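Late entry, evening session. Most of the bench is empty. Finally got around to the prediction I had been postponing all week. Sequence below, unchanged from the version circulated by S.P.
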Amino acid sequence: MKVLAPDVTMEDDVVGFHAQQAVEKALKAAVVAVGEEHRSGHDLDVIVRRLEAAGLEVPPAVVGCGWLTLWAVEHRYGEGTTGLDRERALATAEAALEWSMSVLR
């Protein structure tokens, strides 16, 4: 995602997909780290709620990640999905990864 985001030749749907996946995988790592059962699904808001229900304090930058859900697999293969805020996507992915790593320690 870090490599793709600044590349202006890369389509938004590709960058958005990778941003969403980075956040999803980071959150799911935290789910497993706190002993919760892994479940399928790409809805980032649902995953954040599960983490909060497990007693974790999810930072605001990560709580607000649900806007990336639309870039998940079902839209990844759509034609011409555009309008991605790449800076926000990168910042959200970095925040999720940083927070998840703190949970894993």
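Two things to note before I forget:
Residues 32 and 38 are 6 Å apart (CA to CA).
The chain has a mean pLDDT of 91.
Will write this up properly tomorrow.
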